[in-house]
Structures are given as C-alpha cells and as structure tokens.
Specification:
The protein is an alpha+beta fold. The protein is built from 2 helices and 5 strands, in the order E-E-E-H-E-E-H. The two termini are 23 Å apart.
Amino acid sequence: MLRQFYVTCRVEKWYVDEGTESHGPYLSRHDAIADAVEAAKLLAKPKKPIEVILKIRGSEAELVWSSRKSFVPVPQFFAADDRRLVEEVAR
C-alpha cells in the first residue's frame, strides 16, 4: 500500500501530514520537505513505497519525492537555493 506524506501550509506555518498524524510546525517549506523526504527514505521498503507531495491551497498537488524513482524533478517555483538543498536531501 502506498504511503503519502503531504507537505502543507496552514496559517503561515508548514506541516507534514500522513493520514490523521501531523508533524510540525516548520518555519519554512524547505524544512518541512527536507524532513518529509528524510522520514520517507528511512521508512520506505520495496513493497511499501512512499511519496512526498507538496499540497498548497489553490494549486495542484505536486510530487516532490518518491521511493519508486531515484529522482523526481523539484517543482519550478522553488528558489535556486531551495532546489539545490532539496536535491541534496533527495539523493
């Protein structure tokens, strides 16, 4: 069964949600994504894939990282520094 970690923003704070559990708040989108990817890497197993999804109100959800793929492109709206840091975490 596929597990999904959702990175969301509520009241200008960032959270990582899975099912009914919520972790945070994080002070930045980068921190929330980095923590979600790190947790997903630790928990993923061959028959139990995990995805990290960025879900922002008013826009479509975007896949940030997947244990099924070695690399998923980072959404274009990330600043260059955020892109570099997220790519490092995703390795």
